[in-house]
Design a protein that fits this description.
elongated, nucleus, 4-stranded antiparallel β-sheet, 6% strand, 649 residues, Ion_trans_dom, Jelly Rolls, single chain, membrane, alpha+beta
Length: 649
């Protein structure tokens, strides 16, 4: 591609200094733009540099201190500033042969295109011509101001508002086309459409006031022809007027007594109200403004049904335009406001329809009342937490970097609370975060039952869980533990995933998990955990084995039961030892008795004690196997140790 052609930047961040320097390095001289446009480029470049300096100063004043969050990406150098996308960029039509065309962002090319298209229209639209005519020109004119300035105002208004409409409407269509919406809030959209309707009412009232002066002038002109010596100068300001001024004014004035007579002189039609009210002669601007505004709003809303026109063609056309535009604007106002206001209740209506469908389905399937109540409670809790927004679908449709950052923000702290996962590097944590799915559980929901397959690990965000085990349903064994925000359950799945030789069958749950309150959590499925665990085995084995044993509920339960069994065995052995020591002491005492014959009572006592001791010893020997058999079932099966060793592939 020729270096002399227009440069284009797409999907790249460029600093303003770079763009300006590149503009100077590659001049625009490809036959489309002559070299005499270079001064314009230098002028635009100087304006751009000045604007950037002012913007930097304002930004530095607004943000004197900058805060950095943990986990933010490193910022680029201060010189590499991102440029805001210029809405004046355009695609050259000659380049739209293949693909999307060449995006032109050169200031000189944009300026030349703008000057040749919309520059004159924008100048006419922004000049304060009506304000200059009313506040500057008319007060300094002492002779022909009232009527001639009125005609000038018509030309000024047409030259001002027609260009504005020509520019506003395309910009409005462009904004709605590119962004899809004009306002973020539904109420803001409704107020915006209502404001447009009010503005149209003001414009109609202003034209009604201006045309009323036209009709009064027409009445004066008609009456002037009936009097000899009446001239056009009698309508102007100054001292050169004749004595017919009062006569002309009286002939076209309105009074309550001669209203019918005035209609025979001149029919003012729809302008009768403004002339009769005296608003035209009044110098009270708020009175003029609000009276004309109310008249325009009333007739636009009623579609001009109460307008009684004269036979004057211009007046009839004005009344027709009020009816037509009133119908169009009123329908647009009602339609747009209904659209915006319905958007606020759209989710509620969807929820109502879903509840109705669920009730019909439960009635059709004849579900019991307890199941129906649980379904209703879950739907209500899901609505309260999500407001009808499918969070998983919303995040899934985002680009990968946004999805990673969102999951990183929501789930990273939870994962780092798991001792097994805090040893991972950032890449593996990001992989885990990307695979976490949000789940909701209502109060008293049974999440997993003992002896059922475990298909996911749960990381609790909010709420409390109760876990309990009976060691496979054995009598006399019961263990319970409470989980809160930041805890996890389902570690059997982690052992299964870390074992490279594990089968495809999911592990069996050793505990029953029940929600004590409403619970928000993230779930990690078995397949996702298996994928991440294939890289997790490369870490240090001994440290992870100790961490897994220490924080696992399954290992904690087994260790507690093992300590209980060991203590009971130790206590039994200690009791047997004490009995043997007592028997030995008795035998030693009898052996050391003097040579004289023992008494009959001592002999009987010694024989009884010996028989009881021997009987207890025999019973203990016979009962020891049964005690061992009874204690062993109380000890749960030792959990399988995960394989953290490195694998040679």
């Amino acid at each position: 591609m020729d270096s002399m052609k227009l440069k284009h930047v797409r999907f790249t961040d460029w600093s303003s200094e770079t763009s300006l320097s590149s503009n100077q390095e590659y001049p625009i001289d490809d036959g489309l733009y002559p070299k005499k446009t270079r001064p314009i480029g230098r002028i635009l470049g100087s304006f751009q540099r000045g604007y950037e300096r002012v913007s930097e100063r304002i930004t530095s004043l607004k943000n004197p201190l900058s805060t950095h969050c943990v986990g933010d990406w490193p910022r680029k150098e201060s010189g590499l500033r991102k440029t805001v996308l210029d809405p004046q960029r355009f695609v050259r039509s000659s380049s739209q042969v293949f693909g999307r065309g060449e995006l032109i962002d050169d200031p000189v090319a944009i300026a030349k295109r703008y000057i040749s298209t919309h520059f004159i229209i924008d100048i006419l639209a922004v000049l304060p011509l009506p304000q200059m005519a009313i506040f500057v020109i008319i007060p300094k004119t002492k002779t022909k101001a009232p009527l001639l300035m009125k005609e000038m105002l018509k030309a000024v208004i047409l030259s001002q508002y027609v260009p504005r409409i020509m520019r506003i409407y395309p910009l409005y269509k462009e904004v709605t086309r590119t962004s899809g919406i004009l306002t973020e809030s539904a109420w803001a959209g409704a107020v915006y459409n209502l404001f447009l309707y009010m503005l149209a009412s003001h414009v109609v009232g202003a034209f009604w006031y201006l045309f009323a002066i036209d009709r009064e002038e027409a009445c004066w002109q008609k009456q002037c022809k009936k009097y000899r010596g009446c001239k056009d100068t009698d309508f102007y300001c100054g001292d050169h007027r004749s004595g017919n001024t009062a006569t002309l004014y009286g002939a076209c004035a309105f009074n309550d007594t001669d209203e019918n007579n005035n209609q025979t002189v001149f029919d003012f039609g729809i302008f009768r109200d403004v002339l009769k009210s005296g608003v035209v002669e009044s110098r009270n601007f708020p009175e003029k403004f609000f009276y004309c505004f109310w008249w325009g709003l009333r007739n636009l809303s009623s579609l001009g049904q109460n307008l009684q026109t004269s036979t004057f063609v211009g007046e009839i056309l004005f009344a027709i335009s009020i009816s037509v535009f009133g119908l169009i604007l009123f329908s647009l106002l009602i339609g747009n406001m209904q659209k915006y206001l319905q958007s606020t209740t759209m989710r509620i209506e969807e929820m109502r329809v879903k509840r109705t469908d669920a009730e019909r389905w439960m009635a059709h399937r004849m579900l019991p009342e307890n199941l129906r109540e649980r379904i209703r409670r879950y739907e209500q809790y899901k609505w309260q937490e999500t407001r009808g927004v499918e969070e998983e679908n919303l995040v899934h449709n985002l680009p990968k970097d946004l999805r990673r950052d969102i999951k990183h923000h929501l789930c990273l702290d939870l994962l780092k609370r798991v001792p097994m996962f805090e040893k991972m590097d950032e890449q593996l944590l990001d992989a885990l975060c990307d695979r976490l799915k949000p789940v909701l559980y209502t109060e008293k929901s049974c999440i997993v039952r003992e002896m059922d397959p475990v298909d996911e690990m749960l990381f609790i965000m909010r709420g409390n869980l109760a876990t309990m085990t009976t060691n496979g349903g054995r009598t006399g064994f019961f263990n319970t533990f409470d989980l809160k925000a930041g805890d996890f359950c389902g570690e059997e799945l982690l052992t299964w995933a870390l074992d490279p030789h594990s089968s495809s069958n999911l592990p069996i749950s050793t505990r029953t998990v029940i929600a004590q309150t409403e619970v928000q959590a993230f779930a990690l499925k078995a397949a996702d955990l298996k994928f991440v665990a294939s890289q997790f085995r490369r870490l240090h084995s001994k440290q992870l084995r100790h961490a897994f044993r220490f924080y696992s509920l399954q290992w904690r339960t087994w260790a507690a039961c093992f300590i209980q069994v060991a203590w009971r065995r130790h206590y039994k052995r200690k009791l047997d030892k004490s009995l043997r020591e007592a028997e030995d002491r008795l035998q030693d005492a009898l052996a050391n008795e003097p040579g004289m014959s023992p008494s009959l009572g001592a002999t009987i006592y010694a024989s009884r004690f010996a028989s009881n001791t021997l009987r207890s010893l025999r019973q203990n020997r016979a009962r020891n196997p049964r005690v061992a058999q009874r204690l062993l079932p109380l000890l749960p099966q030792k959990p399988a140790e995960p394989n953290f060793a490195d694998e040679d592939h």
